[in-house]
């Protein structure tokens, strides 16, 4: 677990591919448990450590996860995420190039609970939710494209579903039409950056997570940040 930022009210960490954020039916160890253990050990805290989770990050996805360390911060962060006051930027690797170098995708999405998958549906469909993101192609290799995505709404599997809908499924995403899995079983989707006003101190928070230490990710990060 890599800690990117911490203070008395929040802690921001970088999640690895296939690390689960909070408990599910698998019973696997969770990132939340790791954060609690880290806080307990570092600050020698007796008893139970409070950690709150104001947002989610899919298990096969890497990158930034924001936790609250106090109930006050959690309540305010919940509202901020709900109101779109937290700017979330993702990087996604695809094998296909979008129709335009940059653009906005606006669709209506419905989650199928049984399949744990989201589908593009008509606006008037039952339980349809508006999904909006902006994307830019910011780097290319001989086989792949790196997209930077500003997520404007937070729907279930939104990026995966919307990119697949334009013929650009995320690398490794079998569920949404990519032909092959990644060697680690994860997705080439990374929660790269968050920006928001601290819920208690009101200072500006702007955190970037390093990409997974893999050849393709490192190549793209070097190119996108001008170090290539």
Walk me through what this model shows.
With 228 residues, the chain is an alpha+beta fold. It contains 4 helices and 10 strands; from the N terminus they run ββαβαβββββαββα. It has helices spanning 31-42, 71-83, 158-165, 215-224; strands at 2-6, 10-15, 62-68, 87-94, 102-112, 117-121, 129-140, 145-151, 189-197, 204-208. Strands 1, 2, 3, 4, 5, 6, 7, 8, 9 and 10 form a 10-stranded mixed sheet that branches. A hairpin with a 3-residue loop joins strand 1 and strand 2 (10-15). The longest helix is centred in the middle third of the chain and has 13 residues, at 71-83. The two termini are 28 Å apart.
Please describe the structure with a list of short key phrases separated by commas or semicolons.
globular, 10-stranded mixed β-sheet, single chain, 228 residues, alpha+beta, 10 strands
Please give a quick description of this structure.
The chain has 228 residues and is α+β, with helices and mostly antiparallel strands. Helix content is 19%, strand content 33%. The model has no long low-confidence stretch (mean pLDDT 95).
Task: Explain the layout of strands and helices.
Layout: E1 2-6, E2 10-15, H1 31-42, E3 62-68, H2 71-83, E4 87-94, E5 102-112, E6 117-121, E7 129-140, E8 145-151, H3 158-165, E9 189-197, E10 204-208, H4 215-224
Parallel strand pairs: 3-9
Antiparallel strand pairs: 1-2, 2-3, 4-8, 4-9, 5-6, 5-7, 7-8, 9-10
What is the radius of gyration computed over CA atoms, rounded to a whole number of angstroms?
18 Å
Overall, the morphology is globular
Helix segment count? Answer: 4
The count of strands amounts to 10
**How helix-rich are the residues, as a percent range?**
10-25%
Kindly report how far apart the N and C termini lie: 28 Å
Largest sheet: 10 strands, mixed
* Unreliable sequence segments: none
**How are helices and strands ordered from N to C?**
EEHEHEEEEEHEEH
Strand content: 25-35%
Structural class: alpha+beta
Would you tell me the overall average pLDDT?
95
């Amino acid at each position: 677990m890599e800690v990117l930022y911490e203070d008395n009210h929040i802690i921001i960490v970088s999640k690895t591919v296939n690390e689960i954020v909070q408990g599910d039916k698998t019973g696997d160890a969770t990132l939340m448990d790791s954060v609690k253990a880290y806080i307990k050990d570092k600050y020698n805290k007796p008893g139970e450590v409070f950690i709150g989770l104001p947002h989610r990050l899919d298990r096969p996805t890497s990158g930034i996860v924001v936790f609250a360390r106090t109930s006050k911060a959690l309540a305010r962060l919940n509202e901020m995420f709900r109101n779109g006051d937290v700017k979330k930027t993702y990087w996604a690797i695809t094998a296909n190039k979008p129709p335009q170098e940059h653009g906005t995708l606006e669709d209506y999405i419905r989650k199928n609970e049984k399949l744990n998958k989201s589908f593009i549906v008509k606006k008037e469909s039952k339980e349809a939710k508006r999904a909006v993101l902006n994307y830019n192609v910011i780097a290319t290799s001989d086989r792949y494209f790196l997209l930077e995505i500003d997520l404007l709404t937070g729907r279930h599997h939104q990026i995966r579903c919307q990119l697949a809908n334009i013929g650009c499924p995320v690398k490794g995403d079998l569920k949404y039409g990519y032909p092959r899995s990644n060697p680690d079983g994860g997705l080439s989707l990374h929660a790269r950056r968050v920006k928001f006003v601290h819920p208690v101190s009101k200072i500006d928070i702007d955190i970037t997570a390093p990409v997974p230490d893999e050849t393709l990710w490192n190549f793209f990060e070097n190119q996108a940040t001008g170090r290539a």
